Amino acid sequence: MRSLEDKDPEFFFKYSMDEEGHLRNLFWSDSQSQLDYGAFGDVVVFDSTYRVNRYNLPFVPFVGVDHHRSTVVFGCGIILDETIASYVWLLETFLEAMNRKHPQSVITDGDAAMAKAIEIVLPGTDHRLCSWHIEQRMVGYTPPR
Question: Which of 3, 37, 47, 130 has its CA 20 to 30 A from that of 116?
């Protein structure tokens, strides 16, 4: 991360460690991602369902859509667990990287801890659920009789 910071003076990263000095949470965003957020960050999607690292930790990309309807990445995080405390840390760090600019809407998978963290850190931001996750939960759903 330090070498990326040397190449990109606006590169942002922050991490937290536990009492034993082990990594708990990590967030990073390069200068292009920060510029993209300034222009296209009204709606942010973030989802922690990805576990694509050798430690099986939640990987949380913050993404949006630009004026060409192309996906843009605003930043990424790796968190120790999917708790309210981890999401609060991640969202507060995201805002720090983005000059405290709050998105107008956030779209998530509906995770309860994530929803509570949004309520705490982004109280004026609309929280919406991803339609794909809603549809997936409906597959195989049998209404009560």
Answer: 37
